[in-house]
Amino acid sequence: MTSETRALISLPIFLALGLLMLPGCATVEQEARPPNIILFLVDDMGWQDTSVEFHSERTPFNDHFSTPNMERIASTGILFTQAYAAPVCSPTRTSIMTGQSPVRHHVTNWTLFPDRDQSGETERLKAPRDWRKEGLQARDLTLPKLLKDHGYFTIHCGKAHWGAHGTSGNDPTNLGFDINIAGHAAGAPGHYHGEENYGNEEPRGYTPPWGVPGLEKYHGTTTHLTDALTTEACQAIETAAKRDQPFYLYMAHYAVHTPIQEHRPYIDHYRGHTYQHTDLEIPEVEARYASMVEGMDASLGTILEKVESLGLAEETIVLFGSDNGGLSAHARGTTPMGTEADSHNWPLKAGKGSAYEGGTRVPMIVSWVKVQPDHPNQQSVPIQPAGKSGALAISEDFFPTICRLAGVEIPTEYQENVDGVDLLDAITGAGSSTRERALLFHYPHVWGPKGLGYEPHSSIRVGDWKAIYFYEPQTWELYNLGEDIGEADDLS
Q1: Which residues contact 445 (CB under 8 A, 6 or more apart)?
Q2: Span 154-175, pLDDT tens digits
Q3: Order of strands, edge to edge, in the sheet holding 438-443?
Q4: Which of 205, 306, 317, 492 could cross-link 234 (Cys pair, CB 3.0–4.6 Å)?
Q5: Strand locations in 64-186 (E)
Q6: Which of 59, 44, 79, 134 lies closest to 353 in space, CA to CA?
């Protein structure tokens, strides 16, 4: 064969390879690439702590809080008006990681030390003997482990609160994350301000149980904890982009958990002002709280902008949620807007730790970072902009939903242990409503305040009906939430 003949035969092959490498000519491998996934979880954020309307009508709280970036993803995605979590944090976070209800995984209360029960007591009851005080451990199957095995670069940023101090679950890298940014056993920061080293006694030091680890370079600066975490998360996203890997970012802010401390410069939007349309002055604690909410929202916007600047917006989906209902009464006082105690989540009743809706109903939004309907990922998961869903959703649903988004097969032997429901049909509007499913809540502990549903309890919601059993004083309550969202009329 002559050299001329060989060249003629090779030419079509060379041209074909060249065409495959031209911009805009996606290969089969590129089309099959799974989406980047951001789970943006806020701590203690209530259903009404936002300018986004989750109720059937706008409320005074929607006018008080400023969350333009939540508004942004609500306008491009779908908003769930009936999403739920456990009444306190560790149970919810373990449910997200395992797909299981607290009834099954047994982390039914918040954790800190493996040999210490964080529960209070009633006159008649102590906490259950066999709940998992050590929390989630390295031996457990977790969502990031499955994603990592499927080629994802897995990033944890912020509050972990899975495994107790001194156990394997204290370190998120033992639970499936490639990177851990500032996560450990504690569920709250010692301090939000860099000047106070985020609760560590000495600059560049670590003071358990409450000092935030791993952010030493910000010690002594004016950098708020929320902003430091956001900067680090953006750098981790850049790392994933350079590695050319799909990424899973579990962005779990310590905010808006106590201590309620101002987030500069947002505090000036509230301090010394009155609530909109009223002559009621905003209390100092509520001014600080609103500044923390606005700072959290600014973090969301910064992360969305980072993804967009890297050219990844069309292939990145964000799921927004909270780990329990909004804090009320405890640490926030009794009159947020001239109302009574436990009304920070109005029209919902009570708050974090309670059996009532204020303790468990949370904001939830799902959206592509940038809508581009002809993108392969968005063709597979089309989300109608400005959508609203009344489907019942709960924390453990994130596990099967994210697995399906990522194309991850849940191990056969584990599937029967998954209590969560894949919400993709509800997200895309394809049907299969979850309105009649049963949601189970199990909190046989004493969290803090007394009365208004803070006693040890279990409850179930099916359709519009919600039944609550209080272990003390051993009584039932029954509500029709479709007619009585404030749980004022006990029909038991």
Answers
A1: 108, 109, 119, 120, 127, 128, 131, 456
A2: 999 999 999 999 999 999 999 9
A3: 438-443, 457-462, 465-470, 475-480
A4: 306
A5: 78-84, 153-158, 179-181
A6: 44
